[in-house]
Design goal:
Length: 70
């Protein structure tokens, strides 16, 4: 079984699809699940090995990404 870590995020509603597409482009880094499309709340599921890579990708996105508390 692979350990999973969830990174809770909030993005603009209009940017949810963009975030999903970006993360799909980085094979095996993480999977985006929309929690509340109305508020832009999403969860990025990563493994301990891809956690830092995912954070680096998020830091360099051309859209605002708010990290939410666990």
């Amino acid at each position: 079984m692979i350990a999973r870590t969830c990174i809770r995020l909030r993005v603009s509603r209009a940017d949810i699809s963009f975030l999903v597409q970006v993360m799909e482009g980085y094979d095996h880094v993480g999977v985006v699940t929309t929690v509340d499309p109305g508020t832009g709340d999403v969860v990025l599921q990563v493994t301990p090995d891809t956690y830092e890579d995912a954070l680096e990708i998020l830091r360099h996105l051309p859209v605002e990404v708010e990290m939410l508390p666990e």
